[in-house]
Amino acid sequence: MIIVMKHGAGKEELAEVKKRIRELGYKTHVIHGETRNVLGAIGDERGKSVLQSLESLPGVESVVPILKPYKLASREVKLEPSIIDLGNGVSIGGEKLVVMAGPCAVESEDQILETAYAVKASGATVLRGGAFKPRTSPYSFQGMEEEGLKLLALAREATGLPVITEVVNPRDVELVARYADILQVGARNVQNFALLKMLGRLDKPILLKRGMATTIQEFLMSAEYILAEGNQRVILCERGIRTFETATRNTLDLSAVPVLKEQTHLPVVIDPSHATGHARLVPSMSYAAVAAGCDGLIIEVHPCPEKATSDGPQSLRPEAFASMMEKVRAFAAVAGKTI
Amino acid sequence: MIIVMKHGAGKEELAEVKKRIRELGYKTHVIHGETRNVLGAIGDERGKSVLQSLESLPGVESVVPILKPYKLASREVKLEPSIIDLGNGVSIGGEKLVVMAGPCAVESEDQILETAYAVKASGATVLRGGAFKPRTSPYSFQGMEEEGLKLLALAREATGLPVITEVVNPRDVELVARYADILQVGARNVQNFALLKMLGRLDKPILLKRGMATTIQEFLMSAEYILAEGNQRVILCERGIRTFETATRNTLDLSAVPVLKEQTHLPVVIDPSHATGHARLVPSMSYAAVAAGCDGLIIEVHPCPEKATSDGPQSLRPEAFASMMEKVRAFAAVAGKTI
Amino acid sequence: MIIVMKHGAGKEELAEVKKRIRELGYKTHVIHGETRNVLGAIGDERGKSVLQSLESLPGVESVVPILKPYKLASREVKLEPSIIDLGNGVSIGGEKLVVMAGPCAVESEDQILETAYAVKASGATVLRGGAFKPRTSPYSFQGMEEEGLKLLALAREATGLPVITEVVNPRDVELVARYADILQVGARNVQNFALLKMLGRLDKPILLKRGMATTIQEFLMSAEYILAEGNQRVILCERGIRTFETATRNTLDLSAVPVLKEQTHLPVVIDPSHATGHARLVPSMSYAAVAAGCDGLIIEVHPCPEKATSDGPQSLRPEAFASMMEKVRAFAAVAGKTI
Amino acid sequence: MIIVMKHGAGKEELAEVKKRIRELGYKTHVIHGETRNVLGAIGDERGKSVLQSLESLPGVESVVPILKPYKLASREVKLEPSIIDLGNGVSIGGEKLVVMAGPCAVESEDQILETAYAVKASGATVLRGGAFKPRTSPYSFQGMEEEGLKLLALAREATGLPVITEVVNPRDVELVARYADILQVGARNVQNFALLKMLGRLDKPILLKRGMATTIQEFLMSAEYILAEGNQRVILCERGIRTFETATRNTLDLSAVPVLKEQTHLPVVIDPSHATGHARLVPSMSYAAVAAGCDGLIIEVHPCPEKATSDGPQSLRPEAFASMMEKVRAFAAVAGKTI
Q: Domain DAHP synthetase I/KDSA spans what residues (chains A, B, C, D) (predicted)?
């Protein structure tokens, strides 16, 4: 932590700040600059947010953190990439590009089975489908709940694909874990710390979506909540951030892929469906994501998007998904991955 | 809902869209434009997000909603402003400007009592204090939990001030409701729909904070979740949105006050502490909020900000709060309110 | 400037960075931390952006600037607020709140005279009106150009109000300066450095609008361009920044007022018309701006907004402006200002 | 244009709006909804921003544009993609992926020649280099101006590469056009309409960069300014938009590629250097851009980034550029392009 003193701050103010830093268990080191003094607080500052409160002392201009605030998620703690077993022989983070596909919401047995067979035939290795749906409107379809989970399990049995589904309430974690192979935390719950802590005590992989206004650093701190409770199987998912642009539903931040790869050992998945909000933009953004070096894609596919209960406009038809997968395969090969 | 057809879309495509709109229970009305056709779908479109899926039909360029998607929160349903009883004789939404003040986190009996007496003496009529703290880092202080709630209850007994405190887990709603007069939903939980539904079944006022990337329309939809479950006592709180600017912690969107006043009957409170992140900016933003027409303020006050376990830099010392309140009173008078 | 070395960077890398910093004319100072080293580069770093390039050296993690990059705009260089003479006996930055009002664009002699008399009667002391209009569309009305300037001069003669008008092309600076009392730089030209340099050599006050995506620091750097050329009469204007929110045209960042007041001696004006984009939101945001401590307001007023060639929706009718001014006066009194 | 009437607006208000729409030369068409009426204004609304002013009429809730406001840039006007001749046998928009590379600023004969030979050897077909530099700080290096242009011409003669360089002042357009093959408009000048109009009268290709807060629609309107003056050779360049994320300098909006490809016939180039701000992120974002379907890349390359006068941290060394180009070639092949 670097503490920048104000222009004109006096000796007593400096002494007071030094004293306070030492009380908090750090060594201090002063750099006397030409127009102001700067103090370094030496020691592991992670988890000691209290240092930030020094900004309230007289003579302090600002407090600048230097270390990254996360540990377990960091490349400094674990250098090699994490390869995470997803069940049914599928793993993510290694040389295989994992494609998760399926409808936004599970709507019926026919719908989920038809989609599961179709996406499997095109090369998807995980089936996605929502049973608990966090919807902006209380009047919108909120998901089939346990009935939906059962249909996902049925589709897994039929196709062999492990299933990923969202959990929105800490209360439902156990229930969802009984049916799902991977539990998903949606963008709206990225800082639902009660939920993250519960998932940290689970023995299942967690796919954590970045929030619409979550910085990469905050995103890794949310992952750290899960890791700190003991669950090391966390998959990060970039799904678009909120910006001023309205041509797309969100703005896909693909530079998050190389930034995350630098800072963490956890695998990174891209969701071009929620990022763009329009099915016709999904293929090009999938190709771009693969070229950027992601470990997987999560794609919305629906047999009849115009009748979907949610997210129809961003869902690919099975044929469009199939033809996209041909090109995904070719880009993956150049990126050094196979499907 | 307005459905805009593509330039060059043919008769069959138009017919198909009309057919589908009628199947969904709307009347249709076509406007034949010079370069493209536009369809109106007549009927109450609220809660029928399925219309958006028509974008997947061939020939459709875009689907443009016309009606606001909320009902109970709307001025169209309830014209006069809601005045909400907060307990201990305090109410919000009428002619009294309500000032809620106190520390970010309850830290000790001495701290909360000292603060409570001080803020009351300066004119605050509600005591704030966190017992369950949603912190970005799992290594930061997470609050005193039930112990903190007990201290808040003690401070209420001592001072007569009703207390507001945050709840972060649906599991804790009953517990928090036993001690608190007002339950607060933090910015990170604005779309934690499981939590909102639980609070909708409670007989206590709820203060709902806008999220960092929540549009005003989404904010009202979150309020609608609580209202739709039966709890009509919802207070809205603007606390800064996330933008590119880093001089402040967030960007306080004060224009939300007149926009919300136009669209909803619910009272509006401003939180300049989280919005600015710096105690020295809190007074001017409090004055501005009052002049903009808000119904209340929620302010962080700490007897010793440099030792605060969280949010020290944005907490006012009691003396600074007292002198700010003098001027708040004067601005409130011009705005037609008293404290 | 603080240079943070990577975790695990070696002695030779550190030595190389030190050597390079010294070559650039700074003293160095190393803080040996627990997990990484940090170097301070001591010396006036302003204007030496070349230090940032040290990030390219092996072993360097990041380069963190400490000093503010502006000088002449800074409170450190000039402590007392600048009071700027605007002509015809009007000055800004002192105890008088200056209200600039008038149409977005000058459209005719009748229109500008009618508006000028009306806003003067309500208390405005500067007349605004655009003759060169930067419009998003090449097919929109681009202003009356010199004809419009002549009409502004006529209105000044008739009412005694000094006039402010925008200049968009360095070529036109002299022409506009012949007619205008204050030259305005629009948000789109905040980093049109060729224009700023020309204006820096002029002997007229400049009102510089913040850009839609301009940080406060960049805004002050743009002011510095004008100051560095010799023109000390710069007025800063916050007019809303671009965010994800669409309920308003832009998001008015009122916290810019106290932040700018802290960092610079230059006066600060608020433009609630462009910030909100809707006439009905202008009064409350004007009150809030005054309460926040601004030095002036700039308001769009049009005798017949529904026929305005530009910005109709955000223009107040003269009667609405008059009634707003009554309350502006009362809020200004509490803020310690008169009109 | 769709005009939405307020809930409860009366017959006279509706009649007034109809009358006004007809006066403006449109036909009207009313849809009587369940809770409010909606009017369609039929006619070509482009360039008639005055319709927006109808929002000021009593009873009007909002005015919603339906048509895209640009014409010449639109796919509706010109279906097939534009292939633009850049000089020296290079063209963009067809099957060749064009890579423009070189230093941020021209600094010396040695620097520009060394870089030009190096980037040509790796496959670049256009040389970039700035002679007029728009810098945030007035104290930073502002470019070699005409001297720099001469060095670029020298490098073109030596290598045969056409050169692209920025122009920032309408006054310099002729001067720059004497030396450059392509004139670049920087992000800060995307709405410098005086400059755009001058460039529209030139017989040289223009590369127009998107601004930091420019929507795709506004970006196309800026292109329209150039096209409307007669110059049809416009190349669009996405270079990152400003968001809340600080891990990268800007946020690269790669979804702009398919969105622009849908809406316009103009070629699209990606600038991953300015978008990311860090050389180590440039390769993966270049691969992603190619996979997304762009027509070209513009990349900063410097023989010694740690000594660069500007943008050192984001400049690739020639060796890094060479190895990146190997992989760019492979991704381009999958995307159906050659270099």
A: 84-328
Global ipTM: 0.95
Quote the mean pLDDT of chain D. 94
What is the C-alpha R_g of chain D?
23
Single out the residue of C179, C185, C133, C172 nearest to residue C156, CA to CA: C179
Domains of chain B and CATH, by start:
2-64 (3.30.70.1140), 84-334 (3.20.20.70)
- The alpha-helical segments, DSSP class H, found in D164-301 are 173-179, 193-200, 216-228, 256-263, 272-276, 282-292
Chains touching A (at least 3 CB pairs under 8 A) are B, C, D
Can you read off the two tokens belonging to residue B134? 């949603």
Spell out the residues 6+ positions from residue C184 whose beta carbon is closer than 8 angstroms to its own: C128, C164, C165, C166, C167, C206, C207, C209, C237
CB atoms closer than 10 angstroms to residue D51: 19
Helix (H, G, I), strand (E, B) or coil at B54: helix
pLDDT tens by residue, B169-181: 999 999 999 999 9
DSSP A146: H
Residue C336 CB: number of other CB atoms within 10 A?
A: 10
Hey, are the CB atoms on D139 and C46 less than 8 Å from each other? yes
Give the pLDDT band of residue B289 (cuts 50, 70, 90): very high
Q: Which of B259, B287, B289 minimises the CB distance to C281? A: B259
Q: Which residue's entry shows tokens 């434009």? A: B33
pLDDT at residue A47 is higher than 60: no
CB-closest option in B213, B289, B334 to C330: B334
Which residue, among D251, D322, D278, D295, has the nearest Cα to D101 in the 3D structure?
A: D322
Please give the C-alpha separations between residue C323 and each of A78, B334, C328, C330, in angstroms, as whole numbers: 66, 14, 9, 12
Distance from CA of D280 to the nearest CA of C (A): 10
Report the neighbours of B using a cutoff of 3 or more CB pairs below 8 angstroms. Answer: A, C, D
The CA-CA-CA angle for residues C245, C250, C254, to 5°, reads 105
Residue B229 has pLDDT above 80, yes or no: yes
> Quick one: average pLDDT of A137-153?
94
Residues B309 and A49: their CA atoms lie apart, in Å, by 7
Cα–Cα distance between B31 and A28 in angstroms, integer?
73
- The rounded Cα D85 to chain-centroid distance in angstroms is 17
Contact A236, A223 (CB under 8 A): yes
User: How many helices (DSSP H) and strands (DSSP E) are in chain A?
Assistant: 10, 14
Percent of chain D with pLDDT over 70: 98
More confident: A61 or B266: B266
Count other Cβ atoms within 10 Å, centred on residue C180: 24
Neighbours of A77 (CB within 10 A): 12
